[in-house]
């Protein structure tokens, strides 16, 4: 499978999934939440950042059912959603084990974790 | 009076290889051949060339190409990033260089075997493992299984269908128009092979909601374009296609194919391009007799019509009905057959078709094509041109 490139700006996210936490970057100066993370706050310019732990609940904003071609490390068909988290940020996640007809824009999802190996845990999503 | 690039440069030569699924030559050789054809087209020689520009993605460097061509000295060379979004920007680079006297004759080129070698429609492990911010950006999609161009576009397409009550058939009308135009273009891979809307609907699902016939081809081939100053252009063999406007655009919170974190996902970067094209040229959508809109995936053609101002948000499904985007309609698109029908040469073959329309030599000639709008890759930081007859 394809592993994420990780650097010092994004490591907190992947350290979080290892511990069963879905972390969202927060600005320690103005409090804005953002995903994907980065070294600066686009809202106020501050470089001082932390994170909050998400509730793990979200709503499908869009989704696809990938049928062709093969995707390394995945079984097809593969349902992938773009999820609006209740905290107000958006992220992409696999929704394994769901039939294509069981998902729609607006479906409520709950985060879960796929422990790939000792170094990597991927957030995945299930119907809430 | 605002300063612009308008009218200061022209595309004077176009050249290409055949478009195939297996060229049997190296990518560098394809580009050499395309440049040789483009120079012969306008009556210039290798000795006239002092600039080269291409895509960051191209595997043939400017110096490698210069060596093979026998170009002795280059005064200008540059690359544009972001996949197919670079297409029209290579012409912008060349136009800026010749307009400022930095160079006299610049050739823009793109050549690849993206069907017989590294296939663009597959999951690109290389894209996900780049040691740069693009690789880091891809960490939020590829490991989750979202890793083909079709899949990244399908995410936008699903939302578009939901927001505007559009249907897959609305996407299909773009494919039907492209393939109708390709059917009469002997250089098109799908020459003589038009499709119907029923064919589109019956084609297999690649990534719901995109069918196979919503997706462009994977092609082997190369295209080259020769750009020089407006003054010099008047003395050459072909009718010049003047650059009335040339623009790049990137939007707020921009990513490559995965700008998913904006409130309204869409392609606002093309709106940036459009506003700049209208500003530079002093023209408006109603002045365009036709357009070449980048069509790696059909939904983005609808979104471009909206972003460029040909119709309002959510109105493109109605705009494309009843043959409106086919030759004879109110805004013929992609008269070469587009990248679904002719070939997928990262938008450079579309620029060449724009030049042929200005010259009056397209096999699907649009009457009074005095201006042609051409766009580059969508879903990425992108670019556009307005070509003019004079």
Automatic annotation (TrEMBL), chain B:
Pfam families documented for this protein: Thiolase_C_1, Thiolase_N
InterPro entries: Thiolase (IPR002155), Thiolase-like (IPR016039), Thiolase_C_2 (IPR055140), Thiolase_N (IPR020616)
Record-level Gene Ontology MF annotations: acyltransferase activity, transferring groups other than amino-acyl groups
Ranges where the Thiolase C-terminal domain occurs: 263-380
Thiolase N-terminal domain location: 11-230
Matching CDD domains: SCP-x_thiolase
NCBIfam families, A to Z: PRK07855.1
Protein name: Lipid-transfer protein
